[in-house]
Amino acid sequence: xxxxxxxxxxxxxxxxxxxxxxxxxxxxxxxxxxxxxxxxxxxxxxxxxxxxxxxxxxxxxxxxxxxxxxxxxxxxxxxxxxxxxxxxxxxxxxxxxxxxxxxxxxxxxxxxxxxxxxxxxxxxxxxxxxxxxxxxxxxxxxxxxxxxxxxxxxxxxxxxxxxxxxxxxxxxxxxxxxxxxxxxxxxxxxxxx
Length: 193
Hints:
The protein starts with 28 loop residues before the first strand and ends in a 9-residue tail after the last strand. 5% of the residues lie in helices and 38% in strands. The protein folds into 2 domains: 29-111, RimM (Elongation Factor Tu (Ef-tu), domain 3, Beta Barrel), CATH 2.40.30.60; 126-184, PRC-barrel domain (SH3 type barrels, Roll), CATH 2.30.30.240. The protein has a 6-stranded antiparallel beta barrel with strand order 1-2-5-4-3-6. Strands 10-9-8-7-12-11 form a 6-stranded mixed sheet, with no helix packed on it. The protein is built from 2 helices and 12 strands; from the N terminus they run βββββαβαββββββ. Strand 8 (137-145) and strand 9 (152-156) form a beta hairpin. By secondary structure, the chain is mostly beta strands.
């Protein structure tokens, strides 16, 4: 999940003490882009950027490609329209880089940059218990839908249809990752039943 999908709340660092490993259920890798098509004949490939931190992608950085997380080192890069043109060490022909077309580009979760106070990565929110400000358990946060304006949280409710909650300060009152809870205020007409 990408840093682009983060939401306001208090920040909380979560790693197992002393191991450097992600906590249980946290992904080992995060998507930062998707490789599109080769560019030119020297092995460059266009990457669609899917991170709020594209400046962290620099020559010498190891990226991991595809679901098998094949490691490649960035030899050079340059901006191209809204994306980046990447050249990888040891890949210097169009034919070689063509093999990477349409693969996701990952970085290890442990290397993600810390977020400012009050922001989270989406994977830190998925699975939170959603509770109303009146103490009623609503369900479990299962996904976030990015819209053009306000993002929407999808809350899976047992035996009922999903609830769609706008990610606004009026509705999302508090997020406590350490307690795995999200406290919300349900506006009139917000729930489907």
